[in-house]
């Protein structure tokens, strides 16, 4: 910024590289790097008031009332007191400001607690290369040294830097840094050098900016308020012109009665214009937004109080963390979901295995759980249900022992003793489940050193010399270890993807695996090695591992050379257990025409298997398109290939008139997003994705998740929802219209950044199909009715202007004007917005198609608003001219004339109050005791207040304030008055009744059909749904989904990890036929990521619909009615 040619603010130069010296604070401070302070709140003490007011006045209605307030302080044009506007406006602004401050402060305190608590990492289940960073710590103890590295960025998959220490340069890559959320294993501490802090960390770089979210109804309201204001100006111009014309032709005739202070007709018309602006401002009353906030708050509490969304296992209730987005839940078109911890429990279970062609399953019906009491080192949480496998182990079947020996040796798991318990620290839950399975069946992994692996085999401790680890990576899709047994035999043990291992088998045989069942499968194989060959191979391996150029290629060639002619042992099937009700929830949301995209950082095979498990992908799908190109041209070509195939098959379906529909799935690898999200290709990517029924994006970064959400928001103009449970989902949650956090095992960061939170994915269907749909329906009916009653109220003033000489006189009593929106019609419309429902929650879940009108904005839109305005115009004509005709030239029963202004005003406002209450009764679908109290109580309050305000006593006390003395008593005892009230009410609602009757008969909506069925069923609970049994075909596809990460093999053999001595302890098992002299002591805790029992046979919690039916079935049974 420049002022008189001088630079007042020095612009920070863009950082190209970062230099940090260890233990040199003065040097590091000279660069003015960011501190560790992180600001996640929107406000502070100084900025709260201006920023909050700025946000609130972005609502055009608030700005409109501010301008109206300015007009009301001008005595020449105001016929109403200024406090009638300033009091409600100040009340609305204050309530909203307090609510915003509480929401912002709560987030700040919880985040501060989270940052200080080391026991709540952001992603405790993720490994080093997958977790988000709060700060980077260099895992080197260097008293003097300098690091030169890349500047702060949001790339999680790369890090480039150089360490200069004692005159030597050491390269630094992504494996040399620790990211927040990683777990230190076999050590309680480590030295580190902080590279990035505060807002420059990759967590904050990936979190994105906090935006002020508004609903589509809020945005539509801004447009409508502008339209209403324009229409208001148009009406006032007409009335001002009419006033000028009347003054010119008729004004001189009333000079004797109304002395004119200013003879200028134009100026008088100008003042009349602003007077009518004030009088007709009720087309958008300030109470509208107060009522909207109250309704939103009430619907938020319904979510918090819903016991069917309470998770008993964790004691977690659903929570609406914001009160401004409820109705948006009823318009969701796209759901973007994380996978691990969101769809799955992130708990792996050893489900099945196949050894030497024989399958062993733990899901065999009527089988008893395997008794592992023979093995004192068994994990008590592990359960298996096929006793044939244990019998094979006890019979010392060679293939079975080789199978479990491989599982106990070929891995990168760390074992440690805690409180006399054996605990496994596994890099991935898959490995933990496999090693735990081997442990329970008698092959217990006990200890690891850089040179050896100690295993207790059927009670006998054995130490294998670890000669090499052929590490896993995404290209190899396998890992191998080369060990020397205590007898001196060399062997290579290998596990990996079926398609990879089968190519390297000696006999090219294939084992029966379980990929078609959506399980995470691995194939196991081994190979005996010659000592002389291995010595020569080991020497070449050392040379390749120290090569400066082409190191990876040379190592891969050596791995390919030795990993061939393998002998097949068997296959494993790991179940990444889905959360309860995930498949049913996805099925329900699909019926509601909600598209679900899965955005996950996991690999392709894992994402594909989960897609099949939760029925996002189905075996009957003809094609699963996989887009995994490496260049922009190839990405564009593959996307266009998918589009061409879809378009061709769509044409074939039309020409051949197929009755079925082709369902396609699209699997996208994260590497293509570097090109697909560019401006030149993003539309092509979006068009391709939207042509498919299911979209799964794997290997995506947190920022790419947010970019996908923003892409759909930008071009599809659809309401989006993002749901996740970890810190890597925060940016996606913030980017979507609605963010939902799941309080799972990966900390509370997602919950703290979300708009709604609960404990299980299955609660999403109740949140959307019940609470969301009800909230949207209630808000739309509230707005339609609110505009109807206020437009009708205001238009009567417009018609009256043509009969009062355009003098800006009000047609109603001033007391009625002040209390119309505050007392007479406020509670009935609030009751509608809080309690109305077209069908019950059970029927809402039974018919997800009821959700579709909200997606298409059928209940409230510009068209619906115009219809409401036209209906109000018609009603106002009836409400003005019918009473006008009734009182004109008429007399009361005692012969007195009742055609005075006060009597006409009373009759008109009575007809208006009764008519709007009758109209509300027609709009209400669900009458409760509260609704009855509000409707009849408001009518009673109107008559009570009217008789009180027009009584003789108040007139004697304040004659000028209560001029309508005795009008109610004299008018409402006339039969003609009540007949007029009845006639106007009938004429106003008759078109509505006829319109609804004809449409229900000729073109009924889904709501009409369901409500008719509910009425025919006499409000019985919905019948149980017959769910088709899903049978998976035996279509072969790779089920490899081993969630391993590259680099752990080098870590295990590098001698860099710290070892703890294992206390001397008897360990082992006593198989059948073996001496019982060996008796180990103690019990083991074993591997469990959650610390809870893994019981695949335990009863799952009932779904929401099952709970509903259980309660209602019991009720009907007590009443003697058998539910269908």
TrEMBL record:
Q: CDD domains from the entry?
A: P-type_ATPase_APLT_Dnf-like
Among the entry's GO cellular component annotations, what is one?
plasma membrane
Query: Which InterPro entries does the UniProt record give?
Result: ATPase_P-typ_cyto_dom_N, ATPase_P-typ_P_site, ATPase_P-typ_TM_dom_sf, HAD-like_sf, HAD_sf, P-type_ATPase_IV, P-type_ATPase_N, P_typ_ATPase
| UniProt topology in membrane | Multi-pass membrane protein
Q: Where is the P-type ATPase C-terminal domain?
A: 751-1005
Instruction: Give TM regions.
Output: 63-83, 126-149, 223-246, 266-290, 786-809, 815-835, 864-884, 904-922, 929-949, 977-999
Catalyses: ATP + H2O + phospholipidSide 1 = ADP + phosphate + phospholipidSide 2
Keywords carried by this UniProt record:
ATP-binding, Magnesium, Membrane, Metal-binding, Nucleotide-binding, Translocase, Transmembrane, Transmembrane helix
Q: What is its main location?
A: membrane
The UniProt entry annotates the active site at 338
- Per the record, where are the segments of Basic residues compositional bias? 1024-1035
Q: Which GO terms describe its biological process?
A: Golgi organization; phospholipid translocation
> Which residues are Mg(2+)-binding?
338, 340, 725, 729
User: What EC number(s) are associated with this protein in UniProt?
Assistant: 7.6.2.1
Q: Which amino acids does the record list as binding ATP?
A: 338-340, 431, 472, 495, 520, 600-602, 699, 705, 728-729
What residues does the P-type ATPase N-terminal domain cover?
A: 20-86
Please tell me whether the keyword Transmembrane helix is annotated for this protein: yes
Q: Where is this region: Disordered?
A: 1015-1036, 1061-1105
Localization recorded for this chain is: Membrane
Origin: domain of life: Eukaryota
The cross-references to NCBIfam families, in alphabetical order and at most eight, read: ATPase-Plipid (TIGR01652), ATPase_P-type (TIGR01494)
Family that this chain belongs to: Belongs to the cation transport ATPase (P-type) (TC 3.A.3) family. Type IV subfamily.
Protein name per the record: Phospholipid-transporting ATPase
Name the source organism.
Answer: Electrophorus electricus (Electric eel)
Instruction: Show the taxonomic lineage.
Output: Eukaryota, Metazoa, Chordata, Craniata, Vertebrata
